[in-house]
Amino acid sequence: MKTRTITGLVALLVLLPIVWYGSWPLVLGTAAMGVIGVSEMFAMKKKNFWSLTGILTSLATVMIIVPTTYLSFLPQGIDITTVFFLFAMTLLVMTVLSKNDFTFDDAGVFLLAAIYIGTGFHYFLQTALFSFRMVLFVLLLIWATDIGAYLVGKQFGKTKLAPVISPNKTIEGSLGGMVLSVICGMLFIQWYNPLNLSIPMVILLAVLTSIVGQLGDLTESAYKRYFGVKDSGKILPGHGGILDRFDSMLFVMPLFQLVLAIFNIN
């Protein structure tokens, strides 16, 4: 717990100033986290990250993450959709050229990895470029869910939420996390509410963030169990890897932007 706490504090002291400053350091830092996430996926799959496949997957992920202004070097008429299609076709062709040493299963995993990691960090970046405090709002909802689920689950948890995937999580804990997320969201908008979010909208965002964040956590638990690993990586002592630390956020950030778009909030 001590190592976990120290690592968390150090990570915040590094991450928050970069998010606050924004601009190219934020874009570069976010892209770097995306590439590290890809390397963790390769490690779990027991594939060589320092290979053509690893380089292509990293490039595809970064191109999803960065704003379109950073892709102005692409020829006219070529967009990220076209580039990603070429990436997918290249992976499929490599299953033939490698004589199935690189399989369709590998191609599918790395395609999903680029979409999953790239999209999550893209919307983290979009939210951060909009407002430092808006990132804090979303992260607060995620952290409140984690803390509430842990405290309530430890004290009152009896009914297993997903025993095969994550035996320690309980339905009671999940509900506790949801309630604390709503409370923290309501308190936060008293301090910062640039989008003029109504109370019902904050409650909706908090509940959806809590649910989707927990699904992101469970999803990561599921593929780690599938790959037979405890942590996705070791870059963050006490926390594991980038995917361990940002599993909820990778699901929540796209949802957050989607809800704002659906309700035309900007």
Summarize the structure in words.
The chain has helices at 2-21, 23-44, 52-65, 80-97, 104-130, 132-156, 171-188, 199-227, 242-245, 247-262; strands spanning 160-162, 166-170. A hairpin with a 3-residue loop joins strand 1 and strand 2 (166-170). Helix 2 runs antiparallel to helix 5 (104-130), helix 3 (52-65) runs parallel beside helix 5 (104-130) and helix 8 (199-227) packs antiparallel against helix 10 (247-262). It folds into 2 domains: 1-130, no CATH class; 132-265, no CATH class. It is globular. The protein contains 10 helices and 2 strands, in the order ααααααββαααα. The model has no long low-confidence stretch (mean pLDDT 90). Helix content is 73%, strand content 3%. By secondary structure, the protein is mainly alpha-helical. It has a two-stranded antiparallel ribbon.
